[in-house]
Design brief:
Rossmann fold, alpha/beta, 8 helices, 5-stranded parallel sheet, globular
């Protein structure tokens, strides 16, 4: 996830991290690798605390040790629950309280992480179904990067459809690389090849598939392109993560199709991650 959730007033945020102690009750982890995709998007991996447990699709609060009261933002863990490292996928907001600094991290730097994961984009929040749709825009693909790498997803659903809609072609690179690598994965590669369908589209720059996800749902082209029927409560389950406008509009469309929203405490036919903005 990206600039989201709470806003905490930074305190001397540009001062060197060494001037500030690590806050109590948080993990202080080392950056393992950083990859920049565009001037707006980057991926980073950090060490994983031995005691940290989470469910694929959940998010955590991330910060930097550069203030007496660090700024934290909600970030989906993009790596699956079994991974020995933790991966995150982020936007770069030049004046963002956190990401203006986070985008400059390098291997060896320290990242703060609060210990409690949470979120609605988990298997337990959905009732059983045949097909699960993971509808993402921008960095909203992060929780789905975790879920499509988790064998449990393929145990629970016969078909997985990941839609990745971005403004420009370069912004699709993270999702494209992810799916390509999965096809060669020794653990789930065979399942991915036969059961994962990946739909990448742009809204601004010309590409083989264009149009907003809401438009493609409404005009039926999303379903026609995959050779499947429109959303059906008896068959389909839907997970949604992206900008607030997209969340609102896709939620309305799946509700119109008869699907009922769920949560971890009350599973349903679709779920929305509201902690995400960006």
């Amino acid at each position: 996830m990206s600039e989201a959730a709470q806003t905490l007033a930074p305190d001397s945020i540009d001062a060197p991290a060494s001037e500030f102690p690590i806050p109590a009750g948080v993990f202080a982890e080392k950056v393992v690798s950083v990859q920049h995709y565009t001037d707006r998007l980057f991926r980073f991996r950090i060490t994983r605390p031995q005691s940290f447990r989470f469910r694929s699709g959940e998010f955590v609060m991330i910060g930097l040790p550069n203030a007496a009261k660090p700024v934290y933002r909600a970030y989906s863990v993009a790596s699956p629950s079994w991974d020995e490292e933790l991966e995150f996928y982020s936007i770069k907001v030049q004046d963002g309280p956190l990401t203006q600094h986070l985008q400059k991290i390098k291997p060896g730097d320290t990242v703060l992480m609060r210990p409690k994961p949470t979120g609605t984009l988990v298997h337990d929040a959905l009732t059983p179904g045949k097909r699960v749709w993971m509808i993402a825009t921008g960095t909203g693909i992060a929780p789905f990067a975790s879920l499509i790498r988790d064998p449990e997803t393929y145990e629970k659903f016969d078909e997985i459809v990941l839609t990745n809609t971005c403004r420009d072609v370069a912004e699709l690179a993270y999702g494209n690389e992810l799916v390509a690598a999965l096809r060669d994965d020794p653990l789930i590669g065979e399942l991915v090849e036969t059961r994962l369908k990946y739909v990448a589209a742009t809204t601004r720059e010309t590409s083989p598939l264009m149009g907003r996800i809401t438009t493609r749902i409404e005009d039926g082209s999303l379903f026609a392109g995959l050779g499947v029927e429109p959303f059906n409560p008896d068959v389909d389950r839907v997970m949604i993560c992206g900008s607030m406008d997209m969340l609102r509009d896709v939620k309305a469309l799946v509700e119109k199709a008869g699907l009922v929203e769920g949560s971890v405490s009350n599973p349903g036919q679709f779920v929305v991650e509201r902690a995400f903005v960006g």
